[in-house]
């Protein structure tokens, strides 16, 4: 007998109860399935959020460690450069004596009797030994001008005659060091200056 011909009115109590139980079971399982699916989706969203937060923390920690390592390495290179026997005479700046560096008039920066402006011998030697670039700046008023460097631009020319960006962290650190001291000295081993 086809289902369409079934009449619940003629069905027995057992059949009615069975159909009602089946319907309630179907609705109950459907509701339970929807609830579990929704809860599983929310838990998955929470787990993804926690995972992203962990990854973000790990990346931040890794970048912090990388930054710390680079700062330590820069400090070690600075100390290594300053410890070179060729620099034992010490640096001096003569603001009244001007030297043209890449078309810019700059104060004379000397190491003992040796003029450092436009002389890349020591920076090149250091870079050849260590692989680390060296740039020497001379203070000119409120600016710091690159007077010699081992760095070369894309065209092969030395990257000299330009000023340290006043908005850079390096400039702020150097100026803070100058304000707190009567005379600026080479930074302590724990101090680094980067052009970031």
UniProtKB/TrEMBL annotation:
One Pfam family of this chain: Cache_3-Cache_2
Domain of life: Bacteria
All copies of domain Cache 3/Cache 2 fusion, residue ranges: 42-176
Protein name listed in UniProt: Methyl-accepting chemotaxis sensory transducer class 40H protein
Naturally occurring in which organism (per UniProt): Salinisphaera shabanensis E1L3A
